[in-house]
Amino acid sequence: MLSPGDPAPDFDLQGTAGGGVGTYRLSAATNRAPAVVAFAPGDASDSRTLLTELAETDWAGVSDAVAVFGVLPAGIDDCQSLAAALSLPYPLLADTHGVAAQFGVRKQDGSMQQAAFVVDKRCRVRAATAFDDLDGTVPDLDTVLRGLAEL
């Protein structure tokens, strides 16, 4: 898994965009503001818990501007369905290009580890945290929030 100080791999991924589909580039987002990139394994209960917690977080209380992205190992149709079901205010990106592996969150068995990264305007990781076996508990986003507050 990438650590603070590591360069964040840039990506162009399709994602949900206000009921439609758009393409998102990490470097373009971080040119305007820091970004939170959260990896969720899919439609499992833990993924829904993480994605909902990201939606309910008061990002404005920590940073003037922040881009939030959820990244799923799924196609764009599945991303659209899940984003609509959870009424997410941020895009879900379809990881069809191996971005999870580039961030070091692809497990040996091919599944994705739940994790979140704060990426700064220079496209460098400022904070990283993994969420293992949440079992329905709310993920602790303190590392992410502290990473944003330090920018």
Account of the 3D structure:
By secondary structure, the protein is α/β, with parallel strands linked by helices. The protein has 5 helices and 7 strands, in the order ββαβαβαβαββα. The protein has a 5-stranded mixed sheet, sandwiched between helices. It has a two-stranded antiparallel ribbon with strand order 1-2. It is globular. The mean pLDDT is 92.
Please supply descriptive tags for the structure shown above.
two-stranded antiparallel ribbon, 5-stranded mixed sheet, alpha/beta, 151 residues, 5 helices
Kindly summarize this structure in a few lines.
The chain is built from 5 helices and 7 strands, in the order ββαβαβαβαββα. With 151 residues, the chain is of the alpha/beta class.
